[in-house]
Amino acid sequence: MSATGIYGLSGSGIDVDSMVKVGMMSKQNEYDRMYKKEVKQEWTKQAYADLYSNLNTFNSTTMSKYKMSATLNPQSVSSTNTAVATATANADAAAMSHVVNVKQSASNAYLLTGDKGIKRATNNEGSIYLRDLIDTSKLAENGDKLSFTVSDGQNTATITFTSQQIQGDNETLNDLVSAFNSAGLNIKASYDATNDSFSLYNSTGGSANGIYLTAGTVGANDAVTQDNLGLQLLNNLNLHTVTTTTEDGVATSTLSDEAVSLVNSAGTAVLGGATANIDTFESTFDGGSKLTAKIVSGEGTASVSYGGKTYTIPQSDYEYTGGVMTIRFRDDEDGASYVYTNEDGGSAKLTKTTTDGTETELSGTTESSTASVTYGGMAGSDAVAVIDGKTYTSATNKLTVSNVTYNLLATGSSTLTVTQDTEKVVENVLKFVEDYNEMLGKLNDMYNEQKYSDYDVLTESQKKGMTQEQIEKWEEKAKSGLMYHNQTVGKLISSMREAIYTPVESVEPWKVDENTGKEYRYSTLMSIGIESKTDRGILRVDEDKLRAAIANDPDCVYQLFGSLDTENDEFSKNGVAQRLGDVANDGLKEIKTYAGTSAESADGSSLGNLIEEMKKKMSDFKTMLNAFENSLYKKYDAMESAIQRLGVSLGYITGGQ
Question: What's the maximum distance between 2 C-alpha atoms anywhere in the chain?
Fold first, then answer.
């Protein structure tokens, strides 16, 4: 556009805009070619991003499960008495029968208000206010508060209510529930207003976990009297022990006949008949490692926390005599055994023995050791089961032995038999073929997608003369075939098919069929019934042949798919799933280098850099284009001015005629 923007005053009749457009045509065509190239590059980058996403999902989500023994060699477990025990087995479990005799089920410590409900210290029956459960006239001599200490067998907490909370704020049994539940213990409290019932439940089972209460001062030597308000409150909750037993699938819960009560004794008040002495030792060894040991002597159990793990120790594995404590424990994961000793003098020692007999010893000191604290209450119980003649204990009713996880449901006996789940194996193989065909199908479609050479990228000026529907249909054709005979896609297709058809050399050597006397070896997918049904590598499964192969060799599917050459990672020795994972990884690396992982152009990839360079080139060209257009307008502007001046001069010479 010219500086004045007004043309034709000279009477020349020149169409300047048209002349400028004609002058710009070759330059605009050059810009349009760059624009179309840049848009096509963006479309191609998006196509690569879609391929990367599909291939990444195929590798990390789909194919990874076919490397797992649980997928390739699933086991099923049957039980002759499902009311007593059931089980699951992982792929490494031996196919055999196990005799299980459940002697005792695990249980959780549980205290519950008895049938007579909660007792009140006043005549306000049914009141939920704490002030009605205690003698408030004794608040002053109790330091204007009531308090008691609770332990879950692992940790302790003190719960306190002040005189203001009790009498001023009118706190209730619901506030007592909140105090228990916010104490940081595994003990959960609840109040049932309908039935006027209070309960305490340890959410972790086993004999090392319980509910223990004391209303006295820890370490004090004075007797706790009935004037102790913590004692009054806990007594008036009227708590009974709840024990649950299960026999032949029938569970029975029993509430104790007598309410457990807080009794008076020197230095403490305890809930329940039996008491538990909880002693805690914290030792620091050379190098800074720490070990915490806790003994619940009244229950005959101990626990050790070391190296981020906690071990439950039966009474047979610890001694605490003559001021020296000795605890033996074992790490089931690595098989290492430990012996921990601690003396009252403060010295500590930890000896570790590995499975190969290597022995290491750490020396240290005990940083803190609490004196015995007497609590009353109840502990949970451990599950006790005899499996194949050996006795096992567990804090829960779940126990894993030799790759079989048992669910102990009731006391009694059952025989559990581990067998390969053939139907699940067949199902998983069929799913593998489905997943493989889906990925290969996508690659084949990309590689062979038809190109429409008559449909090019639309310029902005071309789009102005079209509807949105027309634009979408046009661009659908224009985008078709972007990856036609693409080298990366072709390589992926070839490599995937090679992974399928190449024999797996690491499978077991030739075997002889006992019935036919013929030798067989399942080293290819075709040998177990997986073969091509199209010339593009799409697979199908002969289920009868697959089942026959599994019947002959139950490990054949696992060996064909899951084998891994850990020494040299040789292609020929790796299983099909591992090979396909490697193919996908190689493809992902190649795509990431060339085209990145998304449609974003500023990602440092080769294609991304080309797009960024083209955008810069187009921006510079656009600036030049605008300058060229302005120069044309100025040129024709000057011509118009000259014609106008010439007209004035001619008019003067001719006298306006």
Answer: 140
